[in-house]
Write a structure and sequence with these properties.
This protein has three domains: 140 residues, no CATH class; 127 residues, no CATH class; 70 residues, Homeodomain-like (Arc Repressor Mutant, subunit A, Orthogonal Bundle), CATH 1.10.10. A four-stranded mixed sheet has the order 3-2-5-6, with helices on one face. Strands 1-4 form a two-stranded antiparallel ribbon. A two-stranded antiparallel ribbon has the order 7-8. It is an alpha+beta fold. The radius of gyration is 32 Å and the shape is flat. 49% of the residues lie in helices and 8% in strands. The protein starts with 20 loop residues before the first helix and ends with a helix.
């Protein structure tokens, strides 16, 4: 049997989506929030002389400028540059206190040495024996230096563990319960593990007094140094605005602080007069880039607006009813209604916000899964509603006899929400609600 190889030519047409660089950038632009979009456009304007950026300065708190270049060149008129950088690190704060409060002695030098080993949480990460060995100081001198360090602000700084941190804060608080410091010092383990009967018996006090001490300790900071890392001045610029009048819902694109781009026609005309092939190709390329960017930004705004309108249409009860109920809704439902891909909806809602008369909400927050109720109709309720019911049950329980997870599941079943004990435990953890043993109080 002879092997024969037959060669032939066939024409086959296949439709596929090529992920070009421009398509990738379009997808990325849709994912950008307002701040990221502005940074992207500013970067593009530095590369393309035909792009001019304008921002609605009447609403925006951005620097007043007619172009992106002005915001970089005219630094004196940029009022944001006139705001001093007042942020101080924990290390700098401690060093300043040492120089202001203590005289220039050998002991102060030891305190400055210890400051170098204080971490961002305010804890001393150096063993005193090791410090003695490295500095040549005596154990008493090093202990004195540690005492001086622990007298600095914030209260609790220089502690070597959580117990010492809480004791330092309690010691400097005149409003602390009488026995709080002693309980922390002598019976810390029992307090952590909520063995309150043992504490009450040891110190001959009532359980209500132990409860008072525990409540007070919860007001203390386990990381006193973290206050120097708090972020301030974070603002949200909503992409959409919802207006409700006479039961009519109107969603509009929010132009406040949004960048717009304009074509530098004058510059383009001047460059066209230059008889140089490379220059002509350059301005042609930059013009096409501007047109693409203008179209992509407009498309981004239209997509976010369409998705926002569909969300409002499906979640009307949230915007008109005082309890703000959410209906079960997933990305697929919105994508099918708008005939776009689920990933497009996901990018359009992440980091995008809608402004209402009662607050600003991220579009992503309106998506929630559902649970089938236990009634005959098989109605679907959102997990958000179930969580709210769970919170209400815990809020109204007897704190001396808090509900177990199984009891909560039974109570929810009575309200026609059939979920398991494990699901209750899962939702409780998500809501930050402790277990029943840790919710028990002795007031």
């Amino acid at each position: 049997m002879k092997f024969q190889q037959h060669l032939s030519q066939k024409q086959k047409q296949v439709q596929k989506l090529a992920m070009t660089q421009q398509l990738q950038q379009s997808i990325q632009i849709l994912q950008y929030n307002t701040e990221d979009l502005l940074l992207y456009i500013e970067a593009k304007s530095l590369e393309n002389p035909l792009i001019d950026i304008k921002i609605d300065t009447h609403y925006s708190d951005y620097p007043t400028s007619n172009s992106s270049q002005a915001s970089f060149i005219n630094e004196e008129n940029n009022y944001l540059n006139q705001i001093p950088d007042s942020q101080t690190s924990l290390f700098e704060f401690l060093i300043d206190q040492v120089h202001l409060n203590y005289r220039d002695t050998y002991l102060r030098r030891l305190v400055l040495y210890l400051v170098e080993f204080v971490d961002l949480n305010g804890y001393l990460k150096l063993d005193l024996d090791e410090a003695v060995e490295k500095t040549g100081a005596s154990a008493i001198q090093m202990l004195d230096a540690l005492t001086l360090l622990q007298q600095l602000d914030p209260a609790g700084v220089g502690a070597r563990n959580i117990q010492e941190c809480l004791m330092l804060q309690t010691e400097r608080d005149d409003q602390a319960p009488t026995l709080a410091y002693i309980v922390l010092e002598e019976d810390f383990e029992n307090l952590v593990h909520r063995k309150w009967q043992a504490i009450a018996k040891k110190f001959a006090i009532d359980l209500s007094e132990v409860q008072l001490i525990f409540d007070y300790i919860q007001t203390l900071s386990p990381s006193p140094g973290r206050i120097f890392e708090s972020t301030t001045g974070l603002y949200i610029r909503p992409d959409l605005t919802l207006r409700i009048k006479d039961d009519e819902f109107t969603v509009i694109s929010n132009k406040k602080g949004m960048p717009t781009i304009n074509f530098q026609q004058g510059y383009f005309e001047r460059m066209k007069k230059i008889e140089d092939q490379e220059v002509q190709e350059y301005i042609k390329e930059k013009k096409l880039e501007f047109e693409w960017l203008e179209k992509t930004i407009a498309q981004r705004g239209d997509t976010i607006l369409q998705v926002g309108m569909e969300i409002v249409r499906r979640q009307k009860d949230f915007f008109i009813r005082p309890e703000r109920p959410l209906k079960p809704m997933i990305l697929k439902e919105v994508s099918e209604a708008l005939d776009i891909h689920e990933s497009t909806v996901s990018r359009a809602v992440n980091g995008k916000y809608i402004e209402t008369s009662f607050g600003v909400f991220e579009l992503r927050s309106f998506f929630t899964s559902g649970l089938v109720t236990g009634n005959e109709t098989g109605e679907i309720v959102s997990t958000d509603s179930v969580k709210k019911q769970l919170q209400e049950l815990v809020a109204n329980e007897d704190k001396a006899k808090p509900f177990s997870d199984q009891k909560l599941a039974d109570l929810l079943k009575d309200q026609e929400v059939d979920i398991s004990r494990r699901t209750v435990a899962k939702y409780r953890d998500l809501l930050g609600i402790p277990a029943s043993s840790k919710r028990k109080r002795y007031d």
